[in-house]
Structure formats: structure tokens, C-alpha cells
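TA notes, week 10

Several of you asked for a full example with nothing omitted. So below is the full record: C-alpha cells for the whole chain, then the designed sequence directly under it. When grading your own attempts, check the secondary structure regions first.
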């Protein structure tokens, strides 16, 4: 996806309302929560595979041209992420306790987003730490199913 189109798609997706119990008002429309279920399942499957250290499986949920932003850095493809930073993410998450605090998702045609807030308890350099983490994933419906086209991770110490 071209950077301008990704930025436009992300801006459009983030401007959509969240799932805070809202349903589509069209007469025969599927509730928003039901439409988002396969998208959330894709995000959860990716996260589970990454935490398990199964990078090959995690990669199946990423679009080839995925853009991943984290801590001021960027990976511009599935291959770039899986051959580098993913190994560190998997090692960090391996023994982390993750407490999901809130999740919202929205589907609009062939684009969707999932926003997640979590508390992570982990050990780094032998010292315990608790982080508050936010995650945004933008997905696109492709012939093989929903694929993650953009991830933005942000975290900081819990206060």
C-alpha cells in the first residue's frame, strides 16, 4: 500500500466510531461487534503466535508490505520485521503477563482497525516492570482473509 493511501486509510479508520455497544442502523445489517469478530480473531492469533515465538505463524497474519511503528523505529515489510525486531518482541512477550484492559474494533468495507489497551508485567534485565501498552492494528480484507497492514505499538511505565 502506498504511504499516502495508508495514511489516508488510517486517518479514515481512526475517525470512525468505536464499538462501545453501537450497532449498525441499517435494517438487515450485522451488528458491528459481529462484523469485527474475524478481525479481532486475526489480531489475537497474531499476538498469540508472537508470544509463543512462532514467527512463521505470526508472519501469516501480516501483509507483505506491513508498516510497523514502535518506539520511534519502523519496519517497512513483513520480511524486515520477522528477520529482525520480531525476535526481540517474542522474547520479551514470552514470559510477560498481559492483562487486556480495553479493546475496540471497527470494520468499514475492506478496512478495519483494532485498538487495544493492556497492562504488561514482565522482567527486563532481571528487574520486574509493569507497562501500560497501547496497540493499533489496521487490517485489510484480502483473498486469503484479513491481514494486518499497519501496527503501532506504544508503551510506558505504569504510574
Amino acid at each position: 500500500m502506498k504511504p499516502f493511501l495508508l495514511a489516508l486509510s488510517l486517518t479514515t479508520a481512526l475517525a470512525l466510531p468505536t464499538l462501545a455497544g453501537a450497532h449498525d442502523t441499517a435494517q438487515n445489517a450485522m451488528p458491528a461487534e459481529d462484523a469485527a469478530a474475524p478481525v479481532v480473531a486475526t489480531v489475537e492469533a497474531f499476538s498469540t503466535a508472537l508470544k509463543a515465538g512462532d514467527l512463521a505463524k505470526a508472519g501469516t497474519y501480516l501483509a507483505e508490505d506491513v508498516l510497523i511503528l514502535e518506539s520511534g523505529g519502523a519496519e517497512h515489510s513483513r520480511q524486515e520485521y520477522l528477520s529482525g525486531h520480531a525476535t526481540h518482541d517474542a522474547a520479551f512477550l514470552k514470559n510477560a503477563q498481559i492483562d487486556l484492559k480495553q479493546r475496540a474494533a471497527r470494520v468499514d468495507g475492506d478496512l478495519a482497525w483494532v485498538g487495544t489497551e493492556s497492562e504488561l508485567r514482565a522482567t527486563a534485565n532481571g528487574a520486574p516492570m509493569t507497562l501500560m501498552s497501547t496497540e493499533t492494528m489496521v487490517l485489510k480484507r484480502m483473498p486469503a482473509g484479513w491481514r494486518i497492514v499497519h501496527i503501532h505499538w506504544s508503551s510506558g511505565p505504569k504510574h
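The domain at 3-10+32-157 is CATH 3.10.450.50 (Nuclear Transport Factor 2; Chain: A,). Use that as a sanity check on your answer.
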